[in-house]
Amino acid sequence: MSGKFISLAAPGVQQLKPYLPGKPVEELERELGISGSIKLASNENPLGPSSKAVAATAKVLNTVNYYPDGSAYKLSEALAEKHKVEPSWVTLGNGSNDVLELIARAFLTAEHSAVFSEYAFAVYPIVTQAIGAKSIVAKAYEETHAMPYGHDLDAMFNAIEDKTRIIFIANPNNPTGTWLDISALSEFLNKVPTDVIVVLDEAYYEYMPDDLKPESNALLKQFSNLVLTRTFSKMYGLAGMRIGYAVSNPEIADLLNRVRQPFNANLLAQEAALAALSDTNHIQRSIDLNASGLEQLSSGFNKLGLKYIPSIGNFITVNVNCDALPVYDALLREGVIVRPVANYNLPRHLRITVGNKEQNERVLNALKKVLAL
Ligand SMILES: *Cc1c(COP(=O)(O)O)cnc(C)c1O
Q1: Any residues with CB less than 8 A from the CB of 191 and at least 6 apart, and which?
Q2: What's the angle, vertex CA 75, arms to CA 71 and CA 76, rounded to 5?
Q3: Chain segment 227-250, per-residue pLDDT in tens
Q4: The CATH number of 52-277 is which of 3.40.640.10, 3.20.20.80, 3.75.10.10, 3.40.50.300?
Q5: Of 24, 91, 195, 255, which is least packed with CB atoms within 10 Å of its CB?
Q6: Within a 10 A sphere around the Cβ of 4, how many other Cβ atoms?
Q7: Ligand 1 proximal residues by C-beta, below 6 Å
Q8: Which residues make beta-bridge pairs with 167?
Q9: pTM for the complete prediction?
């Protein structure tokens, strides 16, 4: 590359580092000439998608010559009912990544800033930077805190400046798996100026134990500057479909809809999501499998003498006690794909998605072998 075009790019884009996705199984197997690998790198549902979602998708496959319903009428109605709001509160996205970007585009300019925590989800700095807005990174809790590496809401509050337009909060957070105290969250929402949009990213909400789940729907009614984001990529097992959404007061939803591409939620994804919402059997099995898998992985790490960050997501981030990159590479050669998190400033940790029982056993055995424990 000649470097001719970089100076032409928007200032924010010049500095942008692309998101690093998990390595696909096909890519690893092509590179190493191996087979039978497993991927525990992108927090995907090991049960697969809901069979109802697959059937619903198959039923409309022969109508994809038509554009999708740009207003996603049926899905918006169903989500509105789920969140006890009117459909005008719902904004659909091509994954919740898309929604996060819509929020940034609607509210940030080069003069504004967004606040998020150290170790927070990588998409927050990306969408902020792409616009050329300022990222303000609040200190997270120390490793020795009861919630190691977790969001410190006091630090986040103190980081707010006059020009701050957005605060991104992930609960639970990826890649740490850490969560927020419910009363600390509502105290925080009470304090934050109402002209700052608070984005509460609940990509892993369904996995949270009931007693740790905030009453997000009630918070929406209480705080008009709150935007919830949710996804069908994790517990619902539809990551490849790309469908997520925001719930917010209609004035914010209207602004998000102004920057939204007209058909960002595709026809197949709308049907799949609608069917997945009502597949209570798949939902329960997914939640149960994750709970037992979290147990299995954490007790496995305990036996190996490895420290991990407490998690209530569908992944767990473990300290391998050395530079994690060579460990990641060695695991690849064992046919096990996990996620290095050095880009999150956690160079000695690996994030491991909770798989099914066999997959969890396999990653534990592979870790034992490559770390010679
Ligand atoms: C996975 C994830 C998302 C959702 O991504 P999609 O675009 O919906 O697939 C959002 N936030 C966090 C914190 C995540 O980990």
Answers
A1: 157
A2: 60
A3: 999 999 999 999 999 999 999 999
A4: 3.40.640.10
A5: 195
A6: 7
A7: 43, 95-97, 121, 170, 174, 201, 203, 231, 233-234, 239, 244
A8: 115, 198
A9: 0.97
